[in-house]
Amino acid sequence: MAGALDAITQHKGLLAWLTEVVELLKPDSVYTCDGSEEEYKYMCDLLVEQGTFTPLNQTLRPDSFLARSHPSDVARVEDRTFIAVADMNEAGPTNNWVPARDMKDKMLRIFKNCMEGRTMYVIPFSMGPVGSPFSKIGIEVTDSPYVVVNMSIMTRVGLPVLEALGECGDFIPCIHSIGAPLAPFQADVPWPCERDPKHKYIVHFQEEPSIWSYGSGYGGNALLGKKCLALRVASSMAKKEGWLAEHMLILGLTSPEGKTHYIAGAFPSACGKTNLAMMLPTLPGWTVTCVGDDIAWMRLGEDGRLYAMNPETGFFGVAPGTSYASNPNAMESAKSNTIFTNTGLTDEGDVWWEDMGVAAPAHLIDWEGNDWTPEDGRKAAHPNSRFTAPARQCPVIDPKWQDPAGVPISAFLFGGRRASTIPLVNQAFDWEHGVFMGSAAGSETTAANLSKTGVLRHDPFAMLPFCGYNMGDYFSHWLSFAGRTDAEKLPKVFFVNWFRKDDDGKFLWPGYGENSRVLKWIFERVEGTGEAVETPIGYLPAPGALDLSGLDISDDAMKQLLAVEKEGWLNEVDGLSKYYDEFGDRLPAELRKQLAALKERLG
Fold first, then answer.
1. Which residues make Cβ contacts (< 8 Å) with residue 265, sequence separation at least 6?
2. Domain count, the chain
3. Looking at CB atoms within 10 Å, which of 217, 360, 374, 460 has the fewest?
4. What is the pTM of this model?
């Protein structure tokens, strides 16, 4: 193994680590990924041969494949995701803490010989443009070719990464195994993984840092560059190094006059981030371009403004609900060179999912591999089924999406699924109030995690599953930016809610491309021209300030969408006060002051 890698890298630390890993995992062979197109095709062919991939119709969906996971392996497993540090207080109350030393001993036992009978793939990957001083390099070892091909879409993979690493560069070690060693002559299965959810582990050793993931082959559990490195590990590194690693989309909004502002938005998974990031505005003359749909790394520039970079190169989007009505640009992005996971498969060899905007076929094969008809009464696609598509294929990808310096952020959006109380849009009074708004965010849970759906939970900054350290300290880190630059140069902060419902349970706002009307008002507020009224919860659009031209929406619906309901907000205050108690003395005093001020304004 070491001899083969010697020809590729002279990084002694990397070679020594890989030697230790091979000794621990005992793979039959080792393959180092070069990131080439030929390699990607080879891996896809291998997955077809193993039964993991079903090739889709080349005419309908060129160079695309469908994978079906095991039913036990369909989403992030938050209850099996751990922050391993010496001191429990450093992990905080929102994380599953484990003592680092004890967990390392446990991982060494669990991973021992776990790759017997399999190939260990070495994936050098860069989060951010290769060679950028703001990028981070990871080395993921895995026994899953499915992980290899997905990482090849989602990150920058291969020999250029090793060249950028040089002979002594820093890298984040990432060890992943599906946890399914093969005995001699044992037949494999299309989706090997640890079947018992209680035996899955996604562990972040923050003080090293390193990532160890065992038992799951799915999504953020296995693609360790995504949530594990780009958020949990990176957020902890960002705190120490003075930047931000956030669960945020980045979009460019351009007016009919040709002026562009970049906006970053934090929303929990499956709450419309991808739809908003590549939205097709309904307002004439306005355009949206996509820098990224999931993660933003932000640093202060020399001019004192925050600049955001998308560290990824692909979309790992939720399929159900994605359609030409909700997100035409996502549909176009996934027309070719795409990996679909847990969708339905039509008799014509194409994918299908609920709310795709295409009538359900009379027959298909569902996500579990069974015959399906519309009369069966069950979902054809898993609610958290996904598409992995290259970002370069997005019709509205921003020209600066790979700029190593990032793009300047003019506004932050926070939001979630809230059926009541939270208005369509409101603006923070100042930076401190904006951080308070981010800390107060909550959402109804979705199928992107394995908790119950439809339950309201606090999800500050949409980072509840992803903040890699004590969230009380995370709030303090956000507040600190007011003292590190001119406050006027920081992004203005807004809260949006596309999901408010009437008494009959129907959505009041049409959403999707109509959200451009809200973005236009935000653009105008950034420019200093948008009209607003001051309310106890922040600035709301003044009467007539939202451009509703051509939109069929009643005055009563708009009144409900922009209402500030005292009773509902007092309930929010009570709930948030109890939530803040969880952070004890790590909660910044400024947030308690903001909460008290809100209660006083509400009267």
1. 248, 249, 251, 273, 276, 277, 412, 413, 414, 415, 496
2. 3
3. 374
4. 0.96
